[in-house]
Amino acid sequence: MMAEIALDTTLRVLPAASKVIAGCWFLSPKVPESYRYRYAVFVLPELYSDQDEVQAAIGQQAENRAWQALATFLHHAGIGVVVTGATPISKVITADALQWHHYLYQNERLSKARDDGPFAAWPGNRGKASKGAVWLPEITQSLINVGEQALTELVLRQAFFYGYLKQHLRKPIDDPYDVDAFVVGFRGDVLPVEVKEKSRTNQGNFGIDAGRILMLLRLCLATDSNALYLIREVDNTAERGLIGWQGVTLAEMVMGCSWNLQAGGRSMGGGATQTVMMPGSLFRDFSDMPFSEDWIGAHKSLQSSVRGIIAERAAGLENYLR
Question: pTM of whole model > 0.70?
Fold first, then answer.
């Protein structure tokens, strides 16, 4: 969470900041073969006073060429697209006192969903939000210093999932994930972006949730698109002091990761995760990823990037064949 906010602040000063689109939830109803029914849900970043304001925001979204390119990318990946915005039900605004207005992306247009859909029609009524752990004091303090716009966007995304889907509708969700952002080039190339705050192991490695890699592959294989994994690297002290931003492409992750999984932390659904160890040498300084059209063009294809890595490494195979 804090890595997402910190990245947002970092991206705003980049020349290519306009190419970055906020991420979304990836959700599936809890039905047999739920992997067939994956939906990207974009939560609008503001709290609107009425439905007319939501409709106006949806109109701006539909006219945004970068977002249209992103919606096309998701369609080609076999992912349904929903955009939702919130208005307050009462003067006292809480997570469960918001009305959500849903718009479906179909036939290259955003159309208002029925009042009873789409999520109210999903099966089940026994879902519930996890309580989570008590926040550390340094996290609470850091949120105090976050700008209102970034904090509102973050709260609304959480309020949609935990307040609306889980507490209000009580819908069981199968295999939920989120993606933090997308880089969309001027020519329509799309690279999903995952952001995390991490420290290196004693061996200099980073532990990456295996499910995150599978999620990125699910998006990118169908479209031959690459993805980015960014790390806000911090030290192992209680203060978690910032060391710097590091990044790696999905192609480099697949070609460089360990094949032996290790036990990780807890997932969004409460279950245990499996961690893939990534050599720290795979990562480069974030400043080496300018998101320019030339850079995007050189890294946009997962297949081409993998082939480039193979060609580079093939020359070194003779080192242990003598």
Answer: yes
